[in-house]
Amino acid sequence: MKSNTNVIMEAESKSSNSRKGVLLSVLKRSDTSVIVATLLLFIVFAMGSSSFLSSYNLFNVFRTTSLFLFVALGQAIVLVIGGMNLSLGAIGGLSVVTAGYAMHTLGLPAPVAVLLALFVGALAGYINGIVIVRLKLNSFVVTLATSFIYTGLVFGISKGFPYTKIPKEFTFIGREGFLGLPYLFWLMILTLIVLWYVFKYTVIGRQILATGGNLVAARYSGIKTDKIIMLGNVLSGIFAAIAGVLWISRMGSATPATGSDWMIISFAVAVIGGTALNGGAISAIGLFASSLMIALINNGLIMLGANVYYEQTFLGAIIMLAVMAESLRLKYSSIRKR
Questions:
Q1: What is the pTM of this model?
Q2: From 3.40.1440, 1.10.287, 1.10.3470, 2.60.120, which CATH number describes the 55-330 domain?
Q3: Any transmembrane segments, and where (predicted)?
């Protein structure tokens, strides 16, 4: 029979191994770093400003978070297949101008204007995808070129002037809320749930991940990778259009400059949120946490009275810290595996 001492030692050993297993499983997650960083940032800003936790301020933070997330989804969906979309902001701007022109100049109902904006976004994404697939060109080169084309259309159509005759009922979803949280927040949560389900449980989600993870292997396994790449680019255009439409609803006007700063936002949120630059990985909760982190930076620095002219510096420093934390996580995870 085992002595009581041996039994206790075995129990402690099993408990220790269990804790190590849980820690290792947590460290394996690509979104661990950004979740921890966002929580710490939230605590710092909450302690640094008495008005940070006010319902009005949190409403604005979560609204901005939601807008950033939809912008980032347009980038994440092409990053996960191993590409990128430098024309994301231009597509968003083109969709904004389309919706604004339809409502302001043509006097079309808001639902029709939204459908037109989504169609334009999908068409722009399709053009990106067809050129990439048929001509076998790098997505960087293609989307860099189309970004100039779409931007030229934006200012050519609008002449640089905003469209301000936006129906008040159209701004409802961008300015109102439910249970103290903006409608945009609830729309974001629903979208993230769908995203998580698609990539975890559906065939198309698995095919997208496989294509991004290893294009050649995916092709040999029977996946129609060209169609997956096309789908990713079309979805990217649609998400850019959705972000643009929601931006109009938030601002109450369709401004041609919309989307001009989306490239840095889309890459920052997507990459920090656990979307692999070389494809094959995406995290719904990571995208939410990174969107919230960027929104907190924009909001918290103002609340703390920081010099807004240094906002990009603070943003870059925090992004760098998040990347360094991710690097340390990967190294520690690799050591623990040994």
A1: 0.85
A2: 1.10.3470
A3: 34-55, 67-92, 112-133, 140-158, 178-199, 228-248, 260-277, 284-306, 312-330
